[in-house]
Structure formats: structure tokens, C-alpha cells
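User: C-alpha cells for Molybdopterin synthase catalytic subunit, please.
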Amino acid sequence: MSTTIPILLFAGLADRIGSASLAFSVPALPITAGELKHKLSDAYPDAAQQIAVSFVAINQEYALEDQLIQSGDEVALIPPVSGGDGAGEQRCRSAQSPDGTCLITSEKLSVEETVAKVHDANHGATLSFIGTTREMTGEQRTVTLEYDAYIPMALKELQQICRDISNQWPGTLCAISHRIGTVDIGETSVVIAVSSPHRNDCYEASRYAIEQLKRTVPIWKKEIWDDGSEWKGPQTGPWDPTARL
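Assistant: Done. Predicted C-alpha cells:
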């Protein structure tokens, strides 16, 4: 007897298949993540190329190809991410990590509020990285960006980045705020605040945070131009969010 797996879809993959979720029938459970991708590719051949480069997430964590999907698991198919790719919704959405250091919101971001989260009287260095929407990329004019996120998993990944920083640069604090929905030209899409007793650690940790965010956090960005739009994924090399920097 077959069984049904609810699957969440995002960004260009959701557009290609025509839905943000599926009730997908498989012969039986458990099934491996790799087997699920093969069956999805057979069922949706037009999306097979995107499915092949996507990762299955099980219970909001990236899964290897041989990891088993059990009954009751939350399953999502995560297409390549690069600091964002997706059609954002216009309704107000906001969520933060339990400790308050990581925020995902459809509202405008506050640099000051993010920096305040890492303030420490014993830290001599504080940096803020602010990512904004640029108008021109070469000769291509961007009209606006649209961001979407798998919010609970994205918050977990942002928290992991903060923990990684604390482990690699002891005493260093990090807070990250990311916007979803429409982000117009000149507006802020991400704020990363880092503080540390010493400036070298601060610089290195800030760079690590943005690079790791682009690799692992399930937030998607759609560039909208005067004459079309495009989902933006990794710009170099194959995408593997399970490999930490």
C-alpha cells in the first residue's frame, strides 16, 4: 500500500512544479532522501534538473542522500541558495530565534537594533555588515528584489552560524537580521553585527557569517528587471550546504 509524504517547495522549484507544497505518493516508508528525489524527478520531468541539484531537508535539517525519511517527518526540497532566491509574500511575517539574536522579518531592518544585540562593555571592536539592493549589475538594471524563506529552518541555520563563530573566535558575539518580501533599490536585505574583544576576530567572523549565510541558509532571492526576472543561486561551483566553511 502506498503512503503520502507532504513536501514543502520553494523558489524556482515551486514555480516550476506549480505549487509550494506536494502530497507525494511513495510505495512505502521509510525511503531515503536520494530515492525521493529520483521519484520526484520521474513524476516531474520538467523540474528534474532543479530537483537533481536540490537538497532534501528532514525536520528542518539538510539530509544526505542515504538518510531515511520516516512517517511524520517534516520534509522540504531546498533548491540552491545564495543569500536569497524566491517570490516573497506581501503579508507581514516576522520570527526570531529563541535567544533573540537572529531575526527574519518582512518589515524594514534596523541596523541599530541588530548591533545592540552584540553590545558588550568588554568588547573593543564592533562591526556591522549591511547588504542592500543595488540597481545596476553590469548593464542589467534591477527594479526590485523578492525574498522568501523556509523560516524555521533558516532561523536554525542562522543560529548555527552564530554558534560556529562563538566556537571559532571565543568571546565573539554575532546577531543576524534578514528581510523577506519586497526589498527595493537601496533598501537593506541583511544586517550582520559582530563584536569581539579584538578587531581581527571581528573582521574574520563577519566575513565568515555572510559567506556561510549564502551557503546554507534557506532564503531565496528573485531579481526583477525591466524586461524579466531570474532566480539567483550559487555563482561558483556546485552547491553543498552540508559542507561547512
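User: Anything notable?

Assistant: The mean pLDDT is 91.
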